[in-house]
Design brief:
Helices cover about 15% and strands about 40% of the residues. It is an alpha+beta fold and about 180 residues long. The chain has two domains: about 45 residues, no CATH class; about 130 residues, Immunoglobulin-like, CATH 2.60.40. Strands 1, 3, 4, 6, 8, 9, 10 and 11 form an eight-stranded antiparallel sheet that branches. Strands 2-5 form a two-stranded antiparallel sheet.
């Protein structure tokens, strides 16, 4: 019986040490602010937000014939240019303006759609295409995590369209 008692003591010491090691790892995981149970680091990124302060406004235009026509707004100047069977009836054209917020000094990617279908209040459609911005080739948020930019595009008409044209331009912003 003395031999069994000694063997139990020898077995009890490694088991107690193993339990202490497991408990130490659990305590260390609780103390780690950047660790999760699956081992992935916690994301400390601030999500990107975009706020549109003004949309594209082409103001007043009139079709002069049945052919194709277009009007474009320059993102830097806000000037409107017409082409084809359309005339500018005046009014203030406005380029779109947006404000992006996120993590300071992070590079971002801004994506505008290829085409947006505009619908008239009295029937008919037109296409908004050729979107351009005044963003640099590699946009980066400033030290406050902000970037403001302007955008323009071309309104393409083929056939008679009347009334006010409306549509939504989905702008996507992601971190690079």
């Amino acid at each position: 019986m003395g031999d069994n008692h000694g063997a139990m003591r020898k077995l009890a010491i490694p088991v107690a040490l193993a339990l202490c090691c497991v408990a130490s790892q659990a305590v260390a995981q609780d103390a780690c602010a950047l660790c999760f149970a699956d081992g992935a680091p916690e994301s400390r990124e601030r999500p990107l937000t975009i706020e549109i302060s003004s949309g594209l406004v082409f103001s007043r235009l009139a079709l002069t014939g049945q052919g194709d026509a277009s009007a474009a707004i320059d993102p830097q100047t806000g000037q409107k240019k017409t082409d084809g069977g359309i005339v500018d009836l005046g009014g203030q054209a406005v380029q779109g303006r947006a404000r992006i917020t996120g993590m300071p000094r992070r590079a971002i990617r801004v994506t505008l759609p290829a085409t947006v279908t505009m619908t008239s209040t009295i029937g008919g459609t037109a296409e908004l295409t050729d979107f351009v911005t005044d963003l640099p080739a590699w946009p980066v948020l400033d030290e406050a995590g902000v970037l403001e930019f302007a955008f323009g595009g071309s309104l393409k008409l083929s056939g008679p369209v009347g009334g006010s044209l409306r549509g939504r331009i989905p702008i996507t912003v992601d971190y690079n």
